Amino acid sequence: MKTLEPFILITPVLLILAVGIIVFVLLYQRRMLQHQDQVRYLHDLKQRQLLEATFQAQEEERRRVARDLHDEVGAMLALVKLNLHQLINNAAVKDEGLLTAGYNIKQQLDDVLSSVRRISHDLMPVVLEKMGLAQALEALRRSFMSTGLLRITVKYNEKNRRLQAKHELLLFRMVQELLNNTLKHAQASEVTLDLFFGEDRTELIYMDNGKGFDLGSLQNRQNTEGGLGIMSLQSRAALMGGDITITSAPGKGTKAEITLPVANA
Q1: SS3 for 208?
Q2: Per-residue pLDDT tens listing for the chain (265 residues)
Q3: Residue 157: alpha-carbon gap to chain centroid
Q4: Model pTM score
Q5: CA 123: distance to chain centroid?
């Protein structure tokens, strides 16, 4: 029995030591996981701040260009148009060919002025700031209708519902980007925009009747070539705490569903 006494005494010590080591390892792993979570959170926060700063800089630049177009380029073109009008109506001008050319140039100036106003409004959507997303989409529809490029249908369940200003702007920019992609690549003739304000979410559905595309191939190509189309849309959705789902297939058109929880709206 005396020979077993040392073992009897050592065994509890070893057990306590083993338990201590296990507890230490578990606590260490927990601390490491917490540290990794914190690093991941800080990384995501930094990425979000960088995205917000990037988009904010883009908006400031758009506002500057819109003001320059409206206040300077627009004013100069209006002055040229006025001078041309006076020249055409000058009683001393009798040359029919010159008068015809003058009227044609005046019409071209009218078209250019309309384009300048449209571009200026697209860069800095005053209707969006004053009246909200639904009415801004209606104004966008009218703008495209005058060009004859696309037939756009806009649907909404509440005309005067407002979201946070920055979220309205992000959603509006996403629609502009989707329209730009449709014009450049889809060969579509019709686009439908369906804006739904619900109790728990805001949903914006964009659909075109274009030629569609293979989504997987496009994403792989953008990842390898550095394309920003879908990534930009996803980044804007993430900034709102929302989500975007894009579905498409060759010959089937394209559909984009943007969802924004009411808590973030």
Answers
A1: strand
A2: 555 555 555 666 667 777 777 877 777 677 777 767 676 666 666 666 676 777 777 777 777 777 777 677 777 777 777 877 777 777 566 667 777 777 788 888 888 877 777 777 777 788 888 999 999 999 989 888 877 788 999 999 999 999 998 899 999 999 999 998 898 888 899 999 999 999 889 999 999 999 988 877 766 665 554 445 788 888 889 888 899 999 998 989 999 999 998 865 6
A3: 22
A4: 0.69
A5: 13
